[in-house]
Amino acid sequence: MSALRLNLVVVLVLLASGCAGLKKYVRPPEVGFRDLRVVSASLLQSDVAFEFQVDNPNPVGLPVRGLRYQLDFDGRKFLSGTAHEGLEVPARGSGVLRLPVTLDHKRVAAGLRTLVKQRRVAWTLKGEIDFGLVRVPLKASGHFSLPQLPRLSVTGLSLRDIDLRGVTLRLHLRVDNPNAFALPLQGLQYRAIIAGKPVVKGRSQGGLNIAAAGSSRLTLDNRVSFRDLGGVWQTLRSQSRVPLRLESQLRLPLPGGRQETLPLEWSGTVPLR
């Protein structure tokens, strides 16, 4: 008897046995974790797909009726739910089951401060796949790499337009994007502390769109009176380098015209140009 006719006989016997009888003859499919694929990413969230290899040892195809799951990060429950993939695993064949999930990076990292410091986070996915005639437990674990915040640095300080009333302090900034995706920014609010004294604060004009693994330069002009500069003016006149700390809030665009702000700080000594 040919293999095709034998399979047909098996199917007919199983169908004649009814659902209760079928369960005795159906072997559970083998399910193994294959990949955590990033479909799209931004600084604040990622769309990912958990992929599982499903091998069906039975002479009949098995449809995936549903998937029940819970996803944890660092031992904390992130989400749980059900999904309906619509996958049909062929007889003595295999297929790939995909579970799409949107990850809010601040929730994944348990807060904005953790996101600033943490590079990756452990995850665990557990649940059950319903194949109709049989249910198979699902479990996988691994690590998810979080995006990195842009790196802000002050490369120099210039004195411009000096007159009897004051001086324009020009801050020269560099913003680096270490991620594999472009980074659109709506600018930043900032405060500069020069030689220990808060001297200038303001907001950049216009936005920036930093390419993946790219960088952008930015200049910020601030008009300051000699009275507000106080003793800092003497330091600026006599030194070739000055200590400076920049405190800033980076503005990120969100859907619906909303914004998210992220704190970035830099400190060091900068050359006077």
Tally of distinct domains? 2
What gross morphology would you assign?
rod-shaped
Overall CATH class of the largest domain: Mainly Beta
Distance between the termini: 90 Å
- Strand arrangement in the largest pleated sheet: 5-4-8-9
The radius of gyration over CA amounts to 30 Å
In total, the number of strands is: 18
Number of helices: 5
CATH topology of the largest domain: the name is Immunoglobulin-like
Give the ordered list of helices and strands.
HEEEEEEEHHEEEEEEEEEHHEE
Low-confidence stretches: 1-19
Q: What does it look like?
A:
It is a single chain. The radius of gyration is 30 Å and the shape is rod-shaped. It has 273 residues and is α+β, with helices and mostly antiparallel strands. The chain folds into 2 domains: 27-145, Sandwich (Immunoglobulin-like); 151-271, Immunoglobulin-like (Sandwich), CATH 2.60.40.1820. The protein has a 4-stranded antiparallel sheet with strand order 5-4-8-9, with no helix packed on it. A 4-stranded antiparallel sheet has the order 14-13-17-18. The chain has 5 helices and 18 strands. It has helices at 3-25, 105-108, 112-117, 226-229, 232-238, and strands at 30-41, 45-55, 62-63, 66-73, 76-83, 88-89, 94-104, 120-130, 135-145, 151-160, 166-176, 183-185, 188-194, 197-203, 208-210, 215-225, 241-253, 259-271.
